[in-house]
Amino acid sequence: MSSPQMNNLIVAGCVLCYLSVVFLGTDASLLRGESRALTYICSTRAWILSVGFTLSFGAMFSKTWRVHCIFTNISMSK
Question: Are 31 and 78 in contact (CB under 8 A)?
Fold first, then answer.
């Protein structure tokens, strides 16, 4: 009942969220005046954080919903 596929999605989402921290720490002084690269990094960090959060939260919600459906199943005989 551990759902290894969902656990893998949670880990992938967390890795993406942690990766976005690297992009959040990047500023113009590190890129030495390349404004085009900075615009790509700014849009990339927003997407990586959003996708990572969606993956991890969606997988956790799916696991919770699955357990809820199992325990509220009225037709289940014990």
Answer: no
